[in-house]
Design brief:
Helix content is 29%, strand content 17%. By secondary structure, the protein is an alpha+beta fold. The protein has a 7-stranded antiparallel sheet. The chain has a 5-stranded mixed sheet with strand order 3-2-6-4-5. It has a 3-stranded antiparallel sheet with strand order 15-16-17. Strand 18 and strand 19 form a beta hairpin. Helix 5 runs parallel beside helix 9, helix 8 packs parallel to helix 14 and helix 10 packs across helix 11. The radius of gyration is 27 Å and the shape is globular. The two termini are 45 Å apart.
Length: 623
Amino acid sequence: MAVAACKGLFNSECHGNKRMETKPSGRKRVFVQTETGSVLGIELDRSDNAHTVKRKLQIALNVPIEERSLIFGDVVLKNDLSTVRNDSPLLLMRNFIHRSSSTPCLSPRKDIQQRDQSGPIEILVCSDHISRIKKLVREIVEAMKIGIDPIPVCGGLGGAYYFRNCQGANCAIVKPTDEEPYAPNNPKGFIGKVLGQPGLKRSVRVGETGFREVAAYLLDYDHFANVPSTALVKVTHSIFNINDGVNGNKHQDRREYSKIASLQQFIPHDFDASDYGTSSFPVTAVHKIGILDIRILNTDRHAGNLLVRKIDGGGGLDQVELVPIDHGLCLPENLEDPYFEWIHWPQASIPFSEDELEYISHLDPFRDSELLRMELPMIREACLRVLVVCTIFLKEAAISGLCLAEIGEMMSREFRGLEEHPSELEFICIEARRVLEERNMLYYTNVRAVESEFQFEIYCEEGLDFTSNLEKKLAHAYCWPLSGNIRNPLSKVEENVDEWTEDDGNIIPSRSDEYAFTAQDNAATVRRPSMSMKNVSIGEKSWRHENLMQKNGYLSGMSSGNRTVNEQLAGSTSFVKLADMREEEWVQYLENFQHLVHEAFSNHKWGTVGQRQRQRPGTSCKF
């Protein structure tokens, strides 16, 4: 579950509203957002449940609540609200979305602010990690009190606003979740979906990029990559856009509306990376940003979201500092094709420094996941699994001596015409999943066989304990010890494994050898996968793409000749999914994955950087 139950309430500091500083203990507050963007702050009593919250929302916002559920990350809330942290955002969403072009977008009523008495800016799910943001929020609230209004940002596809301090200088950029591309209140005409539906990236839902902005900041330990301070907030102002109906017509009044948004510190800068020569960028800065991008599988690291600041380097020489922004398309729910602008920069081909390797070695993806569960309890478990897989991959690659460019290449898909093919990382994930599924199939087959044998013997023997006897038979079938560590059931599989051979264009699997590995908690022996992993190396894609994917059911019935471009792009995110595994399957999957990654890197061929140039669209720099 992505939601972590709190041992206590974390009362956020309320800026501009002294009432909340003395909020009675035992009560908490939530901010409920409808799928069309309306937001209401609700004080919860001990007796409140999901139904009473929906009823309060219906009275305040005049929205229907039938066949709608309260969503908190991956969790559909029923009666119990104990897992919901104080000041958390909830989403009221239809159980089944069948939206037609005639469905109206509901707009907030005039009396919303009369019912929602929270302050002009409230930090959601407040913690010690956002102390800088608290000071920033106080400055903005003071400026709002003296009439200094925010300014809309002209660029980009979504709604964004510069909030200013009392001197009139930009100090923060606010991005409402309901003004993202395709969201119902997008001010630039990119509408058509409700919150919670797939967005610009199919595995990043509309309305959830703000969470990811905060996640990138939280994961940037010790300000390693220089991500600006970021928090999730509820903010109320008349500057925000509200569309009236499906045509996206804007309300022309000056009514105040509440929004859930990401709030990020504004960093004064001179350029972005697209306007400045990349050869002058510090190697260390490029490496640090690249390390973060790999961990969070950033699918949108283009030159426009790398800010460049000139700093005095002494002796009359100017140096530059890089500031990474716009992380709303990181941590997708499935493995996607990342976009790393830096992959073709010369700095990315320089080996990691000792300090960078030490930083990577101390990364703990499971600790990172727990941090995000605590600080962003609405984040989906699938996103955390992507974080774990990518961090493990980074750590193994760094140990094996790969540079940033090589790691990025292994994570990037290859394009051939209009077809895209899984990355080397994705092929490893596919193989790990295949091994897992074969293990499960073998397990259930043997369980049924043992149960059938025992059912026969139970009529022939008396005085035997059913549980202990069945346990002995299962232990014998799988070579499990009756106590201590449990061996992997696949250790009993005996197969003749030969190399994959090719005959008339068809892949013929024949199997030849086995390998063993030891996990942290149990010894396990797993047979060699159907693809010989010793052929996996950087600079050489030895996988049989199309035939392998058809064999595993990923491209069954599809080819470049019978799919449109849109259909090909729509299927591009389906190579690897991690969310559908049970917890015990996920643990075993990671063991398989770690072993396969180690095997792949052990066969790494050195000196391949620059020898293989993938066919990839949209790169602005080539060397």
